[in-house]
Amino acid sequence: MIERVLQQCEEMIKQGSSSFYKAFAGLPSPRREAVHVIYAFCRLIDDSVDEPDKSPYSIHELREHFLHLEQAEGHFIWPAIRWLFRSYPQLKKEPFLLQMEGQLKDLVFTHYDTLEQLESYCYLVAGTVGEMLLPVLRDDGGDGVRASGIALGIGMQFVNIIRDVGEDLERRRRYIPLEVMERHRYSEKELTQGVVNDRFIAVLQELREVALGWFQKGLENIETYPPASGLAVELAAAYYAGILDSVAAGGYDVFRRRAYVSDESKLLIFQRTLARYALILGEQETAAGFR
Questions:
Q1: φ, ψ for residue 111, nearest 5 deg
Q2: Is Transferase there in the keyword field (predicted)?
């Protein structure tokens, strides 16, 4: 049964995020399967808020089942999560609960005034994912390691916010902080009308620099990860940074065009990153794991 539910989690990450799936595909078992489970649960949390009509649970039901995990039934995620905590007893429940708290925030707080507010939100919905992944990706911890994992998650969420400006407007959400818009003299009216001009480009470029700053902080101690985990983390960061390049290549029109990283670009990123790890991991073995 465990093999079946882990396969179902893998299908969720395959369908939901090819970048995330490919980045972590070369991890050894059971680290790889644990990443799939974490992604699948976070996907359910996210969908319960963004697409409640299609979600098998409300955010409140997910939280209640998670709090009573040993009794939770009715979906493959529950035996998968129980397997996750048995396999990684150092994993804490707090980041999962904070993640749900962040998603709940989307129901009541939809317009941000400051970068500080946005970064707090990004910690809840994405920095916590970094905290979840750390006990899976490495066997040690510490405040410095925790801070880097959180930073990577925050950076990735900033990328999501830049990419999804148009989609979020349709949901009546504005994550771009008002202070950033005012700094570049770009109005809320222009935003709702989907105006792409030099001022809007300046807004996104500022957010891009913030995202890249978080990535830089998140990769500061990458050499302390087990090599396969370090490679996976670097790939994930590079794939997400590639989305920023796609946004720029598309003229920053995030209202009418969803930016993505092509398979060709992912292959180039993979080859470039793998080259630095090949001597440690063995090129043929590592490449086979990421196919």
A1: -135, 125
A2: yes
Q: Is 136 left (phi over 0), alpha (psi -120 to 50) or beta?
A: alpha
- List Cβ neighbours of 159 (8 Å cut-off, separation of 6 or more): 211, 240, 241, 243, 244
Q: Are 240 and 258 in contact (CB under 8 A)?
A: no
Per-residue pLDDT tens digits for 249-269: 999 999 999 999 999 999 999
Contact in structure between 223 and 230 (CB atoms under 8 Å): yes
Q: Which of 86-95, 138-147, 190-199, 270-279 has the lowest mean pLDDT?
A: 138-147
At 169, the pLDDT band (50, 70, 90 cuts) reads very high
Query: Residue holding tokens 């882990």?
Result: 6
| Axis crossing angle, helix 227-249 with helix 128-137, rounded to the nearest 10 | 150
> For residue 76, what are the contacts with CB-CB under 8 A and spacing of at least 6?
4, 5, 8, 9
In single-letter form, the type of residue at position 289 comes to: G
Q: What percent of the chain has pLDDT over 90?
A: 86
- Name the residue among 23, 46, 47 with its Cα closest to residue 35: 23
Q: How many CB atoms lie under 10 A from the CB of residue 202?
A: 17
pLDDT exceeds cutoff 60 at 237: yes
Amino acid at 9: C
> How many residues are recorded in the chain?
291
pLDDT (tens digit, 9 = 90+) per residue, 86-120? 999 999 999 999 999 999 998 899 999 999 999 99
Which domains, ranges and CATH numbers included, belong to the chain?
2-289 (1.10.600.10)
Please answer whether residues 23 and 235 qualify as being in contact, where contact means their C-beta atoms are separated by less than 8 angstroms.
yes
Residue 196 Ramachandran class (φ > 0 left, ψ -120 to 50 alpha, else beta): beta
Three-class DSSP category at 111: strand
Burial of 146 (0-12, 13-18, 19+ CB in 10 A): middle
Q: Is the peptide bond between 30 and the residue preceding it cis, with omega within 30 degrees of 0?
A: yes
